[in-house]
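Quick one: structure tokens for this chain, please?
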Amino acid sequence: SEARNLVLKYVRIKQESLTEFVNTDLDAALDAGKRIIGVRARGTDYGVVRPHGHHIQPGAQDFIRKISELPEYCPIYLVSEDKSIIESMLTAYGRRVILSRQAIPDYHGGWMPNCRTKGYSRRQEGAGYLKAIYDLSRCPILLAGRNNGTLAACLLSRGFDNFHLFELAAILVIEGNLA
């Protein structure tokens, strides 16, 4: 697309600023030519707060169902800040799952930007997220819900061999008397 071409031409990510988030397991799998299934599983505030106009995100079972249609040998690179999704994917796929190195906040409700990860600065949280999204863009297969992280991975990629976007529905909040 034209937008992707502009991003690829003008956007440069300084890799040295992301060195603390290098994922050697993912790098080794990509270097070996393995077909990695990138999964962007957004949960937490999207599921709890259900913000008006945002898209409903797929749950762990939606991803598990879709992954079952793909070749079994593929490793799975999981980018999620939702501990329950991470646990479900690890239970289903065990050692096939390569976790992103981004910080996982201690989520207790409300908006994710208000949740902090102990021991991480805002810069570290942002750098870890950027590295995780950049790494998703390097995977030949991407399964994701419709959200900004998915859009960024698509813009940073050189294309995917297989791409599945879960289009579940937009969240509409209706206020007032409906009688």
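The radius of gyration is 17 Å.
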